[in-house]
Every structure is written in C-alpha cells, then in structure tokens.
Amino acid sequence: APYEDIKAIYDEFFEAMEDLKDEWDIKKYEMLHGTNKTPQQIQDTWTREWYRALNESRPIWDVKNGQTYEEYEINMQMWRENLP
Q1: How many Å apart are CA 63 and CA 40, to the nearest integer?
Q2: Measured between alpha carbons, how far is 50 from 73 in angstroms, rounded to an integer?
Q3: What is the Cα–Cα distance from 37 to 19, expressed in whole angstroms?
Q4: More reliable by pLDDT, 12 or 77
Q5: Which of 7, 20, 81, 79 is closest to 52 using CA atoms?
Q6: Do the Cβ atoms of 45 and 31 come closer than 8 Å?
Q7: Contact present, 53 and 27 (Cβ < 8 Å)
Q8: pTM above 0.70, yes or no
Q9: CA distance linking residue 27 with residue 54, whole number of Å
C-alpha cells in the first residue's frame, strides 16, 4: 500500500505506544512495514503490538520479595484504573 494510505495507521499506533510508555515502562519497538503490506495487515500488526505492550505492563505478584496478595491486588486495581 502507498505510504499515504498507511500514514494514519502509523501515526495512531505510535501515539498509542507513546501513551503507554508515559504510563508504564515498556520496550520501544521501531517496526516498519514495506509497501507490500495492505493497510489492514499493518493495522492488525500494530494492534497486536499495542496489546502485547499493554500486557507487558501488567503488574506481577512478587512473592519472592514478600509482596502479599492484597498488595498485588492493589497494584492490579491501580493498573486497571489507569488503562488507556
């Protein structure tokens, strides 16, 4: 697809990823697609990457360092409340 057709998809994805990076510590991905992909294929890839990054930001229950389940639940609730 020509770049003009996919520019909005790129812009939306990178804006959404910046929002995630502002809220949580996630990896930065610099994936670019060639012009041999359709806009839908690119949109699907970006959607998967956004959800992957969001899932990566999910708190974990740190039992080894003495975190209680109640503390973990508080962290999960805070995470859920701040989801985009």
Answers
A1: 42
A2: 24
A3: 26
A4: 77
A5: 20
A6: yes
A7: yes
A8: no
A9: 10
